[in-house]
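Notebook entry, structure prediction.
Reason for the run: the old model in the group folder had no record of what sequence produced it. Starting over properly, with the input documented here first.
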Amino acid sequence: MDNKVIEILEKVGALITNSHIVGTSGRHMLAYINKDAIFPHTEQASEIGRLFAEKYKDQDIDVVVGPAVGGTILSQWTAYHLSKLKNKEILSTYTEKDKGTTASAAESEQVFRRGYDSYVKNKKVLVLEDLTTTGTSVKKLIDTVKKAGGTVKAVCVMINRDPKLVNSETMGAPFDSLGVLEIPSYEEKDCPLCKSRVPINTSVGHGKKYLEEKNARNR
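New structure, fully documented this time:
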């Protein structure tokens, strides 16, 4: 575990423990990283970008790509620091969820808009994400970059929550993380917190939406 990135998360109050959280994927967990608590703090967000940049300063990178919204901020700070370290301009672009699909947030595709795919075509790309549990969103991001004609040189996340499930082999590209914080997650039917009737946290994650949908199904 990289203590530096964990220290940053703790400093801004982004690390939540001993709570019943529902994540974007719909899985339930005991701890949670509230990434939205990081980005208002520009100094800490910049520092995380610097950590990414330091890790890949010796790689041949043209563009950094992350998914909106949090990945956009990390992508920009990383490209900024990489540009300083390599003394050349490293571009930053981002993907967005496909508004044309009726799929849930966990199932929606990542697409380039605003002509940003042109900045990726025939370029060497560093793919970034803030957090990963199952790796599904990262895989979609990798596929989107490849479809745009970019070459994925490396993939890195701020925190990998399941290194056994998310790694270079499963991602199909060189993969790493700034830190590892293993947080067991469960399907609703297997969740020990649900079985113990621990109340769901509705302040962070998708707990509020999950309860609304569950109540709607039970009506």
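Summary: Helices lie at 3-11, 42-55, 70-86, 136-147, 168-171, 192-195, 207-218.
The old model has been moved to the deprecated folder.
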